[in-house]
């Protein structure tokens, strides 16, 4: 912090350090969903639940599975200090939080029923207020990172920081600065996930027989450069042709009935080993992308805490013109859903409170990433 304060012309207050992470507990996302439900997104539209038990049993007996890769991104975020900085165009100072994070991106590949590491990336980043560089000097934050990495304590522990990411302060309430810094770390994690998917595609590892499951929503957005260049935008979309996003937590209010009204009961009453119809949604944060979304019940609701435990939300980016115009092939949706049901075992009782919504390869991938982190105590001691 002394190095950072000197480089930015600020003053470190040696404030209390603490984690900003939510614990890994079951949850329902009660926040507002920024999605608009459009229409059916499958070739055989239905208004009813689709049974998958027999198909999943048949596929299991054949040892058939389309999922070969499992990707998870994880970040641990900490408030590590408060720093006083002068505001632009004046002598008045204000206090801003310094946010630091560890980011891990892991991808496991299944071969002969065993999981192996396919890819792992780890980095430490710091998020600071944008006025830390009041003059807008080119390369200022990169040069400051170099100064930090020359610190003997970091060298001894073999830790280095990759980036200093500025968070916006103009027209932002002071109590939102921590959220802004955390969002910068989250955005960096998403960029690393996108790079991981692109790397697998470059190597030719993803295809119609080898899908990738990404833990969580497909919240990827093309960059400004990709939006301007139609070829780059198509490359971006094609990277996700064989990728499913599987979310353990979701907002049940976002499920709509045929009249467009909220109908969370449709998910709550979803029978075991069934899926919902597939809906097309347009994300308001990313209007260039259309997604197919459906829900699958992995666990009997009589054996879970709530009727939403045991249900996962599945997303697939609509890539080809045929998918966009006609929707996903319903038979492919059924096969993918049945394969997903077969991924639920063995369970992780006692190891994770979210067990009912876990698929086991993702659970193992998460555990692998967590094992590579520096402990919170050691990381916070750096500051």
Description:
The protein is an alpha+beta fold. It is built from twelve helices and 14 strands. It has helices at 2-8, 53-61, 140-149, 152-157, 177-202, 224-228, 230-238, 265-268, 321-326, 330-342, 360-371, 376-381; strands at residues 11-12, 18-19, 35-40, 50-51, 67-86, 93-111, 114-129, 161-167, 211-215, 243-247, 274-275, 279-283, 286-297, 311-317. Strands 1, 2, 3, 5, 6, 7, 8, 9, 10, 12, 13 and 14 form a twelve-stranded mixed sheet that branches. Helix 2 crosses helix 10. It is elongated and about 70 Å long.
Characterize this entry briefly.
The protein is built from twelve helices and 14 strands.
Class by SSE composition: alpha+beta
Shape: elongated
Radius of gyration: 23 Å
With helices defined by DSSP (H or I, 4 residues minimum), what is the helix count? 12
Sheet having the most strands: 12 strands, mixed
Strand content: 25-35%
Q: Could you list the spans in which at least 5 consecutive residues all have pLDDT below 50? A: 27-36
Distance between the termini: 6 Å
**Order of SSEs:** HEEEEHEEEHHEHEHHEHEEEEHHHH
Could you tell me the mean pLDDT?
Answer: 88
Features:
30% helix, single chain, 12 helices, two-stranded antiparallel ribbon, twelve-stranded mixed sheet, alpha+beta, 14 strands
């Amino acid at each position: 912090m002394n190095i950072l304060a000197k480089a930015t012309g600020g003053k470190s207050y040696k404030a209390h350090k603490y984690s900003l992470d939510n614990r890994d507990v079951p949850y329902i996302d009660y926040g507002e969903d920024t999605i608009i439900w459009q229409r059916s997104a499958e070739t055989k539209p239905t208004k009813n639940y689709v049974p998958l038990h027999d198909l999943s049993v048949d596929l299991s007996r054949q040892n058939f599975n389309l999922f070969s890769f499992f990707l998870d991104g994880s970040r641990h975020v900490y408030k590590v200090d408060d720093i006083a900085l002068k505001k632009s165009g004046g002598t008045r100072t204000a206090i801003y939080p310094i946010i630091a994070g560890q980011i891990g991106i892991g991808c496991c590949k299944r071969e002969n029923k065993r999981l192996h590491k396919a890819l792992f990336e780890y980095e430490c980043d710091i998020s600071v207020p944008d006025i830390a560089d009041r003059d807008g000097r080119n390369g200022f934050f990169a040069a400051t990172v170099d100064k930090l990495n020359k610190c003997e304590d970091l060298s001894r522990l073999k830790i280095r920081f990759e980036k200093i990411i500025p968070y916006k302060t103009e027209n932002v309430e002071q109590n939102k600065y921590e959220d802004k810094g955390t969002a910068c770390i989250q955005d960096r994690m998403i960029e690393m996930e996108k790079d991981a998917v692109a790397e697998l595609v470059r190597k030719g590892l993803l295809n119609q027989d080898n899908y990738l499951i990404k833990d969580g929503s497909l919240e990827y957005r093309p960059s400004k450069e990709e939006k301007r260049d139609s070829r780059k935008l198509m490359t971006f979309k094609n990277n996700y042709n064989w990728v499913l996003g599987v979310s353990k937590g979701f907002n049940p209010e976002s499920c709509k009935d045929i009249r467009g009204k909220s109908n969370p009961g449709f998910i709550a009453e979803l029978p075991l080993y069934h899926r919902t119809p597939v809906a097309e949604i347009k994300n308001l944060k990313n209007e260039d992308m259309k997604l197919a979304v459906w829900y699958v019940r992995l666990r009997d609701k009589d054996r879970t805490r709530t009727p939403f435990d045991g249900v996962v939300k599945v997303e697939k980016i609509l890539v080809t013109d045929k998918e966009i115009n006609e929707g996903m092939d319903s038979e492919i949706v059924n096969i993918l859903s049945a394969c997903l049901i077969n991924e639920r075992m063995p369970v992780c009782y006692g190891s994770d409170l979210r067990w009912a919504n876990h698929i086991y390869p993702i659970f193992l991938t998460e555990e692998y990433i967590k094992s590579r982190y520096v402990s919170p105590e050691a990381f916070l001691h750096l500051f």
